[in-house]
Amino acid sequence: MALFLLIAAGGAAVALRGGGSGGGKAVHSVNDVKGATVQIVTRGSFVDPEVGEQLDAAGSGSGFIVDPSGIIVTNNHVVTGSATIEVYVGGETTPRTGRVLGVSECSDLAVVDIEGDSYPYLDWYGGTAEPGLDVYAAGFPLGDPEFTLTRGIVSKARTGGDTDWASVPAVLEHDATINPGNSGGPLVTADGRVVGVNYAGSNNTGQFFAIDASAARPLVAELREGSVESVGVNGQAVRDDTGLSGIWVAGVASGTPAADVGLQGADIITKVEGLAVGADGTMADYCDILRSHSDDAPLSLQVMRYDTGEILTGELNGRSLEVAELMGSQVAEETGNELAGATTWGDYSYATDDSGTLEVEVPD
What we know:
β19 and β20 (322-326) form a beta hairpin. The strands form four sheets. Strands 14, 15, 16, 17, 18, 19 and 20 form a seven-stranded antiparallel sheet that branches. It contains five helices and 22 strands. It is globular, with a radius of gyration of 23 Å. The termini are far apart. By secondary structure, the chain is mainly β.
């Protein structure tokens, strides 16, 4: 399962006030889904584990309106850590300014608000999405402002949702083609009801995935009031052949526990509450920890910071990160990290020559 990465998109924008053109009515036909589907264009600075720092990077994803007041559902990975969010409603050419109300970095969902009212909106599907159900994937893939709709069926009612960027409890597999930029867009029935929120796929295998409406709907209601299952990072599980693993921090949202504790882009969270995270290449352990504690509970952290060669410890919702060890110390050895060919040593002893003239401190 591969993450649909944000696609570069350029162009300045001016915010537009006012509502949509649908009179605040729910959509009841797949032919009218376009009016309640949005393209989301973001800008911000991130640190990619493969290409490094990306300053003033632009990307795009999709989303859909679920309330006539302008409440939008999309993916967490589309918006978290972004400096600006521009929302194009139903293929409009002038954007509206989006404001994040809440995110779940574990369930990969986010709720965004735009000004205005009387927008057309989508209702949630009330039944069980069984294999064979006809579905349509709506959105704005590949950074293209042209609306796209593809058709398929639900091929699997429940499949694994543990990936290197999320740990989603209920996921549908379908074959309605989606591409990068479809992230956050709706998977709907013929009468325009939302079966799921598209978030991943593989064009090589023809397998595409959506967060099931049964899991998304109640969480979206919570996210309208604030973030849950989130500390404020745009993260990704990483591991290498030396045994190093953790959660790579690509970006940090201001005013969150992650920002308050002092996490930075390019940090790697190696332990939370004493438990190593990311060892299996997914966010499962990390998200299990977050779900086992309240949003304001202090959580101990161990962090590896390559830029300064430091290992830091601190607490989310508690004490700020402080240097505990330097790279190459016993802590680094325990995590299996051998940086740049560095050698780790334990205790030292003194050795002398036969005459007692020379004395040298050497590793045991």
